[in-house]
Each structure stands twice: as C-alpha cells, then as structure tokens.
Known about the structure:
Blueprint (H helix, E strand, L loop, with lengths): L5 H14 L20 E6 L2 E6 H5 L4 E5 L6 H19 L3 E6 L3 H10 L7 E3 L4 H5 L14 E5 L5 E6 L6 H16 L8
Parallel strand pairs: 3-4, 4-5
Antiparallel strand pairs: 1-2, 1-5, 3-6, 6-7
Amino acid sequence: MRAPDPHAVLATAALLAFSLGAPGAARAALEPGAKAPDFSARATLGGKEYDASLAAMLRQGPVVLYFYPAAFTSGCTVEAHDFAAAMPEFRSLGAQVLGISEDKIEKLDRFSVSECQSKFPVAADNDGQVAHAYKATMPVFSGYASRTSYAIAPDGTVLAVYSALNPDQHVSKMMDAIKAYDLKTGRAATPSN
C-alpha cells in the first residue's frame, strides 16, 4: 500500500475544514493583546541548526511567528518565498521572522536553504506543542499546523493575528502590524541580524 501524497492530504484537509465552517482552515485563539507563549525549538537558518527561543528573539525586537502546514508544499513554498523577499524590510523595522511547522529538522534544513533562501529561520515543532499553544493547528487533521501568522511585540504581547489557508496576505498583514507598532510606540527600528 502506497503512502498518501502530502499535497493531497493538505488539499483534503482544507476542503474538509472549509466545509465544516472553519474559514481558512484555521482558528487562531490568541487574540491581539494576549501574551504569546514562550517556547524553545530546534531551528535552522541556511541549513545550520541551532536552538531558537522566542524570549531570546524578543530581546532583539518584535517577532513575526508564522505557522505553516508542511515544507515543500505549494502554498508553503509560496509563503516562504514571500517572507524571504520581505526580509530586508522586516530587518529595517528591527523585526525577525521565524517559520514553524511539524516537519522534521532534517527536512527543514533543506527548506531553509531552497525555499527560505537562507534569509530567515524555520523551526521544527515535532510534537505539535508550539502549534497547540498558539491554537495554530488544522482543525481536522493532526500533525499539521494551520497557516497562522502572529506579530509579537518585544514584551511578548500579540500585536496581530492572521489565519488563512491562502498564503498571499500573510506577509503584508504582519508587515502592517509591525509598522503600526513602530508608529504607536515611536520605537526607533534597529536592524536585526
């Protein structure tokens, strides 16, 4: 018996979630103003693995945390390319980006180089605990994060949340949230590395 095609599984999940009334196949329960759960996870940037921590990232400025279903699927590839293209602007605003999926780190090593273009890290949430803490799981199929993005202030406050299966607006929504935060706080952007 042949293993199911992950693209077909994600398409089926999206269709089922939509038919069950879950817009965008995601229901982000963390609202703006909530405290973002801290976490540590194995991450990779340009194929080089390290231990990432939200608390450590927030000490450097705001963080865009985006959950995606699976590396190398069509929508996740588009989203990774979009975030990679936007990294110069995120950096100019002093913000960092971290992508998270339930993929194994070995797969993410390759994804971080080819699709993220070595411009931002991606982390492995092997047991799904981070996605569950952020309420960023597929409502129908376990083992897959929903496509949910969070903008988080340096104090750990959620600034904005955007959930949609379509990857097209995730970057612009998070960029707008970081810019609005900068305007509101008068924060002088300090570029992140």
